[in-house]
Amino acid sequence: MINRLLNAATGWYVRRGLRAYHHFPADKTAVILVDAQRAFVDSGQPLSGSLAELARWARARKFAVVHAPIAMGAGGPFKTPAHRRIEQALAGQADGPGLAPAVGPSPGDIVLPARKTLSIFGLPETDALIEARGFEHLILAGPLADLTLDSSLRDAAQRDVHVTVVSDCVAASTPAALELEVRHTMPRYAHLVTGLKDLERRVGG
């Protein structure tokens, strides 16, 4: 009951209190692929194909494609279970920290320095990029919905930007964790949570 009330209240606030944003200007829109790295995106997974399709579509629309990888040793001396899970995955293969081949990078993409924080906004270069390029709309996707994407989304909500999460371009630790994120957590912080096909329809191509 409390969750339903909170979801309803948050939805009303987003619809009424925040700026409506129905257009995605190419020069003000960035698709940010959060931790789309070999350790987390297997080439045989459906997610790999979905992220590749999102990246191709974004480049065709002249949206900025930004890669935001996480580094080994994230979390410093006081590591949480999330940090340890990420570090274990990165260390599990020699090329684990590298960007997944399915998503690039392609010429013209932006690759941020590997960060040691769960949120992409723990890296000063993220805010600097948004300000320098005048981005108003961020489209987020990535394989760690319940870890780094969740943290990044919450931080993005504190900034004056419109945020979309592409629901079929994310994954999580477990199916239950993914369902919780997509159905309950993400709609509280993102202005729009939608699938790639619906996003293409909204944008118009």
Number of helices: 7
Which H/E pattern describes the elements?
A: HEHEHEHEHEHEH
Tally of strands: 6
What top-tier CATH class fits best? Alpha Beta
Question: Runs with pLDDT <50, length 5+?
Answer: 14-20
Number of domains: 1
How large, in whole angstroms, is the Cα Rg?
A: 16 Å
What is the element layout, followed by pairings?
Layout (H helix, E strand, L loop, with lengths): L1 H16 L11 E6 L11 H15 L3 E5 L12 H11 L18 E2 L12 H10 L3 E6 L2 H12 L5 E9 L4 H15 L2 E3 L1 H8 L2
Parallel strand pairs: 1-2, 1-4, 2-3, 4-5, 5-6
Helix pairs in contact: 1-6, 5-6
Structure description:
By secondary structure, the chain is α/β, with parallel strands linked by helices. It has a single domain, classed as Isochorismatase-like (Rossmann fold), CATH 3.40.50.850. The protein has helices spanning 2-17, 46-60, 81-91, 124-133, 145-156, 175-189, 196-203; strands spanning 29-34, 64-68, 110-111, 137-142, 162-170, 192-194. Strand 1 (29-34), helix 2 and strand 2 form a beta-alpha-beta unit.
